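sanity check this:
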Amino acid sequence: MTGTTNYMGKIPSWVWHEDGMKQKEIIIKKTFHLLNKVGNVSFKMALTGTASVFLDGILIETLKEHPRLVTRFEEITNFPNHLKAGQHELKIEIKCETPMPVAPISIHLSNRLLGMIGYLEGDDLWIPTDTTWMTENRQVTEICVYGEEPFGDLENSPPSFIRGGFEDIVTKSIKEITILKENLLESKWQDQLEIYGDLGETFPLSEFEEKDRFIFYHVRKQTEWREKRKWQRSLDLRGIPSIRIDLQKEYNARFIVKNKGAIPLTILWNGSESIDELEHYDGCMTDWLEIEPNCQASILPQGMRYLDFFIYGQPNCKFHAEIGFEEAYAELEQVGRFTSDLPLLNNIYDVAVHTNRICHQLGLWDGIKRDRLNWVYDYYMAAKADYVLWDDFKVLKRSIVELGHGTPYGYWMNSIPSYTLWWFNNVWEYYLHTEDKEFILAMKEDIQKHLQWVTDNIESDTGFFKEKHAPFLEWVPMEEEEYWNAFHALLMITKKNLNQLIAYVPELGSPVKWQEPNLKEEDFLVNSQALIIPLMGILSGVVSDTKAIEFLKTYKPTNPISPLSAFWLAECCSKFGLQEHAWNVLQIVWGYMLEKDSTTFWESSILTGKRDFHHNQTTYTAYDSYRMSLCHSWSSTPVQWISRYILGIKPMKPGFREVVFKPLPLAELRYCSGSISTPFGAIYVQVNKEKNGELATKVIAPPEVRII
């Protein structure tokens, strides 16, 4: 066999027997032929279970089952360093007593609870686990690609694995940083950070050992960081050379350290989204790298903007290190653009684009620091920016598929009933913007499965759900009865959108015939602190146009409000021609985040002047201090609002084959221009406001697009 340069081949996948959980004892093997002798050979693997590794029938090593084995690549230390030319067989006998844990919230991952991943490498040799490996007399099944949940990124991964199991994550050097402070060292920056000086005190590293398996990667890492942070806080670091870095924007970032000195170095580091989180949060990212002289090491990418580095090693010795920074995101070409003579409007658009872009990773994550997962409502909202920004929707599609295909009948997606309804709306809006019938038909079985589950949970005579469940439509606290009404308003919206989809794709089956629940207008216009309640009444049509306009004209954004509800508020205002009210919402909510030097938009929002805005967001439900994400994909929605109501392009038929062109000018706006992505190419728009207040507009669209 001839291979490629180390790490440049295909990234390995998690594999297992096709029978899944029915087979907890299996043999996985790979036969290969070498044309020549190969040197520098090693074999590394991760798995659920105990593994006995054989090469050419000889037992090389046995790994005992341990939670550690599913978190990192373990090197088989007794594996031969050289392999002779000829035929070889690598065989792994696996016995698993403890699969990965699963809960209703992760039920869509229940076919990924057992797995093994590994790679054999050497000089011009690269053999990763894939479906060419065998178990019994059949090929193994791919459980998931590298980086997917429930395993996530693995420690000790080659740096090139950052491109992810779908092979489409790209990296880009971060060229500008700010040094905020330094202690007992000198530094300089020229595309990379150089630090040097004299080492001071030293201390032993904390002993950390994985004790449990976790349903998600981020839960495991946060547990680990808390323990390491506790250890760090027991130290007096004032005598340790240190430096604080601002990457100037939040990124899904990693850093690579080169030890250019003559002694081993340890780099203790912390990462965060805000300075207050860096200084005060018990769960702040906390870890270390150990680097031998003339060697380098890197971290797995994490969502952060600020970094603290503490450098230590042999006391009274000189050190010299070089640190480079990279961001990672899915490779997408930006088609949608916007500019105007309003700096704040431009800034909101640009920061929303950045927020949306960096949440495109293996999936369309809700955020890059915490819950790096495919949450239905999050990617439904994020997709609103996707449809006008990017050249393709590969990340969105695999997110739709993961929840739709992985969640079995009898379960709600992400364990939240409203999320299954949002999934249907997501499928409709995907088709509306793409006319991708092939994808919709590929999802037919899953659409019908979840449609049947919802139908089976509805009372046929009343249209209400049979059982009440824990309320969730928004992080803002709400009363159970408020949620119950708004949830059924969402059900009405879902029925309408599903029937629109079925009208265009009749192969999906008969129209949905759920009984319309008897909802009362006055139940949505109660004095609720949850803005989403009246908005769901308006969006569903339960609240009349007259009452909707009355509410929208008088409502003033106040705490508690999130960017989630703020988008729907702006959308409703623009729908009824209240464009200045909609713009006021963006200025208040997104403008406030920008006032706080935000470079990405948040999961929630506060409209107060308190110093530590990040900590103060704990007024919302479910989260303790600093857990609210400062980079959240569902807050990128201003991109769609600007495209629809400032540039004025709104699709009326699937695939943008027919669009309404109706810019709604702002009083202070004199000029704007931009582009919107469609399946046929970009639509270009230019709007000028003449001195007499009239609009002079220009629109250029592909021939397949009809402007009305």
Observations:
- The first strand starts at residue 13 and ends at 16.
- The first helix runs from residue 217 to 233.
- The chain has 15 helices and 29 strands.
